[in-house]
Amino acid sequence: MRLTLDSVDLFYHRVHALRELSLVVEDGEIVSLLGNNGAGKTSTLSLISGLVKARSGEVTWGEHDLTRMRPWDMVGAGLIHVPEGRRIFSTMSVHENLLLGGYLVDDAQLVRDRTEHAYELMPRLAERRNQQGGTLSGGEQQMLAVGRALVSGPKLLLLDEPSMGLAPLVVKQVMEVIEAINAEGTTVLLVEQNARAALKIAHRAYVLESGRVTMEGPASELAQDPKVIEAYLGV
Ligand code: ATP
Known about the structure:
A hairpin with a 2-residue loop joins strand 1 (3-12) and strand 2. Helix 3 (94-100) runs parallel beside helix 6 (138-151), helix 4 (108-121) packs antiparallel against helix 6 and helix 6 packs parallel to helix 7. A six-stranded mixed β-sheet has the order 6-7-8-3-9-10, with helices on both faces. Strands 2-1-4-5 form a four-stranded antiparallel β-sheet, with helices on one face. 38% of the residues lie in helices and 26% in strands. The protein is an alpha/beta fold. The protein has a domain at 1-78 and 193-235: P-loop containing nucleotide triphosphate hydrolases (Rossmann fold). The chain has ten helices and ten strands. The longest helix has 16 residues, at 168-183. Adenosine-5'-triphosphate (ATP) binds at residues 12, 15, 17, 35, 37-43, 193.
């Protein structure tokens, strides 16, 4: 199912956060949204998952009109948003946090299977399954947030800054998990300030500046673009 944002305008009172924003995510892709603080990346994800409403424009996912779909119906259909800051439950165990991802899934066996699969992809979580979420390292908490999303059965996964605050080696591990999830058939829209890490795993990317798309293309091409290198990759 293709995700399409067509000429979307979003306001927070007088702040014009997204300006005639259009983008497409095809089935099976990893698409990255790059841009500095305040460029509109988080707003784009919030719009897709229905947390904020556009003033104009269209947001569709396959047959679904996402501007009208209720959030729990989105989750049920496989549209899963992992917001910035992880938001795991710190006094619950790793295992309980994972099981929560299955709260809309009726089939208990399926939830167990997906939980085991999350442990296979992220063995650190398996080692810490009885530990309280709040005692995990930043990287492990990020893995847990991704694991919980996996238990929901994502078809389209929206990830907001999964690398935030993590050491380079841990960023690499998180990116490898995202790649593995994608290789198993989940489409990924990845918001990142860490352009270098994101462009390594993305198929395509969009650069946002002040709520507009200013560049787009295959990730490998953007990674070579002098403007991208200067603004987002450093030298
Ligand atoms: P960051 O990496 O800091 O989250 P971002 O690229 O995700 O940046 P957004 O958070 O989407 O950017 O913000 C886009 C614009 O909208 C910014 O000018 C921001 O100040 C403004 N904005 C975001 N959320 C709100 C809000 N709840 N109320 C008012 N303005 C907001």
